[in-house]
Amino acid sequence: MTILVTGATGTIGSAVVEELLRRGHRVRALTRDAAAANLPGDVEVVEGDLTEPETVEPALRGVTAVHLLSATGSDVIPLATGPRLVELARRAGVRRVTVLATGTDGPVEQALRESDLEWTVLLPIDVMSNTLGWAQSIRDAAVVEEPYGARRTASVDIADFAAVVATVLANGGHAGKSYRVTGPEGLTPADKVRAISAATGRELGFTELTDEQARGLWRSQGWPEEGIDFMLTMWATVPATVGVPTSVVQDVTGRQPRTFADWAAENASLFV
């Protein structure tokens, strides 16, 4: 079977590509700029833009399953073209779709529910590699500074999330399901800093910032005001459910999800 991966050059999309290749599947990767894709040589790279569905139509030919974004761009705006993309997939003979969800019920999800495709919505609560944003501060000052230090997130390793996607695309059996995909534990930022400290052998600290202190820090780092507002609002309203682990990784793949401590140990060199 040939599987199409949209968003194939992104952090999650590239991991999905690698996992599918590891399992021996033929992979077609959709990207806006094929010349800059930097994907493995045995991947069929095609150009297309999800905001312009007609450019995606050729990429769907001969495809059995699709990993589809529900939003595109750093602004995470839901794809208004969802209904047209779903219709083109149906016409091309696609049977199965996984959706990289953002937590909103957007046009892609709505169109899939009204279709006869086998669809599965997958929401990664948070990915462990997001903590790489702390690397410079840890290297320079041995400290992480963030607001809302009490928030807990059940972060998932990207490799585990990619394994869930690949299993569903290849094997099916999860049609009409929406899954929150997490790691095995809910951790605060300070918990994660302690794990990185243990992995690197360095004494690291965590400082909880007020909103105004966070604004000042992020402004000094060149963040746009809308980005600062978005992050503060998001963190101030984080629901308790994001810290509650699910069993999706084990249920779908048959393996235990990796812990943050394991991830930190493997990536310790990036923090020193």
Largest sheet: 7 strands, parallel
What's the CATH class of the largest domain, please?
Answer: Alpha Beta
What is the name of the CATH topology of the largest domain?
Answer: Rossmann fold
What spatial form do the alpha-carbon principal axes imply?
Answer: globular
Report the CATH superfamily of the largest domain: NAD(P)-binding Rossmann-like Domain
Annotated CATH architecture of the largest domain: 3-Layer(aba) Sandwich
Rounded to an integer, what's the Rg over CA atoms? 19 Å
Helix content: 25-40%
Poorly predicted segments: none
Quote the beta fraction.
Answer: 15-25%
Task: Give the integer mean of the pLDDT values.
Answer: 95
Terminal CA distance reads 43 Å
Number of separate domains: 2
Task: Tell me the series of helices and strands, N- to C-terminal.
Answer: EHEEEEEHEHEHEHEHEHHHH
Number of helices: 10
Number of strands: 11
**Strand order of the biggest β-sheet:** 3-2-1-4-7-8-10
What is this structure, in a nutshell?
This protein has about 270 residues and is an alpha/beta fold. The chain has ten helices and eleven strands.
Report what the structure shows.
The protein is built from ten helices and eleven strands. The chain is an alpha/beta fold and 272 residues long. Helix 1 (11-22) packs across helix 5 (158-171). The chain has two domains: 2-124, 3-Layer(aba) Sandwich (Rossmann fold), CATH 3.40.50; 142-151 and 186-243 and 258-271, Alpha-Beta Complex (UDP-galactose 4-epimerase, domain 1), CATH 3.90.25. Strand 5 and strand 6 (77-78) form a beta hairpin. The protein has helices at residues 11-22, 82-92, 107-113, 135-141, 158-171, 189-200, 211-220, 225-236, 248-253, 260-266; strands at residues 2-5, 26-31, 44-47, 65-69, 71-72, 77-78, 96-100, 118-124, 143-147, 177-181, 205-209. Pfam families: NAD_binding_10 (PF13460).
